[in-house]
Amino acid sequence: MKKTFLIFLLMISSLALFAQAGTSESFNNLIQNFFELRMNNSVFDSKKESEKILSRINEFEASTKSQVEKLTEEERLVVESYIVNEKFGVIYEDKSKRDSLKEMMKTHFDKMEKFCAGKENSDLSSWFLVSRGDVTSCYMVFSAKDVMKYGMAVKPMYETAIEKDPDFFLPYMNLSQWYYYAPGIAGGSKKKGVSLCKEAYELSKTVPEKYYTSIFYSQMLFENKQKDEAAKILLEAEKCFPESTMVKIIKEQNAKGKSLFEYNKEKSDLSKDVK
C-alpha cells in the first residue's frame, strides 16, 4: 500500500485546475496563469533541467506575492498549495534536498490543518478540498505511519469535492488516481480508476486541462492493453502542446512497452527512503 500511494502522489503533483463558480476573478487568473506556466515547463526534462523549472516556479511565486496576499485565506492557501506541490514534484528526486522538502511539506500541511480546525469537508470549497488532498498525499510520503494514517483520509476529500461540483474535472482526476493505485483490500479498483479518469477527460475544457487528462487517461488505457486507443488519446495531449518533453518521453516509453506510471516508479527512489 505504501508504494502505491507514493506513485499516486507523484501523479497528482502534475495536475491543473481552472475557473470555477464562487471564486474571485483574481484567484481564477492566478490559478490559470500558474498552470499554463506548468504546462509550458513540460518542455524541459524534469530530471536534467529541474533547477530551471524550479527557478521559473520561484519567479512566479515572487512576482505574484502581492496578488496572493489580497485573496481570501482559503483561496490563498489553495494557490500556495499548488506552488508547494509543484516544487515537491520537481525536488523529490534530489536526495540531498529531502530534509528541506519534508519540512516544506510539513509547514504547509500544518497551515492547512489549522485552517480546517473545527470544519467538516462539507464546510470547505471544492478547490480547497482537492488541494488539501494533494498536500496531504505529498506530506504523508515521508513516513509509512503517515501513509497508513492519512492515505484513506484523502478519498472523502475528493468525493466531497465532486458532490459540491459535479462538473469540476480535477477531483475526478485525483480520485481516479486513488482508486487506480490503492490496493483492493483498501477499496482500490483499477476499473473504477479508469472510469473516473475518463470522466475527468470528458469534463476537461481548457488546453492545459485537456493536456493533462489526456496524458493520464492514455496511460491508464495503455496499462489496460488498449494501446491503440491510448495512442489516440495521447495524440490529443501532443496537439495541445507539441513542444512537450513529457509527451515525447511517454511515446518513447510506450514504444518500449512501459507506461508513464512505470517510468516514474523506476525513476523515483523515494519509496526506498520511507520509514
Quick tags:
275 residues, mainly alpha, 71% helix, disordered N terminus
Q: Would you kindly provide a written description of the structure presented here, covering whatever features stand out?
A:
With 275 residues, this protein is mostly helical. The chain contains 15 helices and no strands. The longest helix has 19 residues, at 73-91.
Task: Name the poorly predicted regions.
Answer: 1-19
Output the radius of gyration.
Answer: 17 Å
Q: How much beta, percentage-wise?
A: under 5%
Could you give the distance between the termini?
Answer: 13 Å
What's the average pLDDT? 88
Quick one: how many beta strands?
A: 0
Q: What is the helix fraction of residues, given as a range?
A: over 70%
Helix-strand sequence = HHHHHHHHHHHHHHH
So what's the overall shape?
globular
Q: Classify the secondary structure makeup into a structural class.
A: mainly alpha
Number of helices: 15
- Note the main sheet: none
Break the fold down into its secondary structure elements and pairings.
Blueprint: H1 2-12, H2 25-41, H3 50-63, H4 65-69, H5 73-91, H6 98-116, H7 126-139, H8 144-150, H9 154-164, H10 169-181, H11 190-203, H12 207-223, H13 227-240, H14 245-255, H15 260-267
Helix pairs in contact: 1-10, 2-3, 2-5, 3-5, 5-6, 5-7, 6-7, 7-9, 9-10, 10-11, 11-12, 12-13
